[in-house]
Amino acid sequence: MPDTPTGLLAGKRLLVTGVLTEASIAFATARLAQSQGAEVVLTGFGKGMRLTQRVAGRLPTEPPVLEMDATDDDQIAAVVDDLDARWGALDGLVHAIGFAPASAIGGDFLATPWEDVATAVRVSTYSFATLGRAFAPLLAAAGGGSYVGLDFDATVAWPSYDWMGVAKAGLESACRYTARELGGQGTRVNLVAAGPLKTMAARQIEGFTSFEDTWGDRAPLGWDVTDAEPVGRVVCGLLSDWMPAVTGEIVHCDGGVHAMGV
User: Fold this and answer.
1) Most buried of the four, 143, 155, 182, 206, by CB within 10 Å?
2) What is the share, in percent, of the chain residues with pLDDT greater than 70?
């Protein structure tokens, strides 16, 4: 008789996007999810596909890596078909997708052309609704499941974050609307607003060191910009069955900075 899987995510079938390096929140989430009994599939695309395939081998169990550009409907449909054939249902989906062209971040907010703003919003905001729509039937087949996205607090203006900050504000609103749309099928939809981490995405932001230098001092619990595990744990908690009545929420995992004044 086979062993019964144990752990917070025992038996869960999860799709995790955005794994590029071991420093990423998505990697920490996938690693922790596997350690808690989940079966994981990753996605990558384009030039980053090789990075995802390489880092997949550093997980406790090397997962399959499927190609999926979140702006390509055909690729999204192919992943849906693959998971339908592979599992027939999906218990959890992690949206760790964000991009802004160089002109849209770095401190020249008012000079950014619309074309670059449109790219940032399409990739970082609209893709959240796109994936929610595409994977809704598989989540419904699992009894509802959980859809979790990664955020950076959009209630204030951050140095150099510029149009990515605007895109994150849109993401926060998109989360609420997606939660409303998918609630009827039992799907929980939430975001985790993380503190700054030394990830590949952070390298795009000129002046990131200003976050690094001040965040730890402002955080009541302190903050380690090199450790994505605390955020990954929150994501895994939301993917689990322990929060059955939580949806449309933004859970902050930032050492407490979001609650502090000057």
Assistant:
1) 182
2) 94
pLDDT digits (tens, 9 = 90+) for 207-255: 666 677 788 889 999 999 999 999 999 999 999 999 999 999 999 999 9
12, 126, 147, 168: the catalytic one is: 168
> What CATH topology corresponds to 13-256?
Rossmann fold (3.40.50)
Q: Which of 12, 161, 177, 198 is catalytic?
A: 161
**Residue listed under structure tokens 């609420």:** 176
Q: Give the residue-averaged pLDDT of 150-177.
A: 95
Q: Are the C-beta atoms of 161 and 205 separated by less than 8 Å?
A: yes
pTM for the complete prediction? 0.94
Other residues' Cβ atoms within 10 Å of the Cβ of residue 170: 18
Q: Which residues contact 74 (CB under 8 A, 6 or more apart)?
A: none
**Tokens read off for 162:** 């510029």
Per-domain residue ranges for the chain? 13-256
> Whose structure tokens read 């027939």?
88
For 9-33, the pLDDT digits (tens) are 999 999 999 999 999 999 999 999 9
| 161: annotated active-site residue | yes
Q: Is 168 a catalytic residue?
A: yes
Exposure pattern of 187-216 as b/e (b: 16+ CB <10 Å)?
bbbbbbbbbbbbbebbebbeebeebbeebb
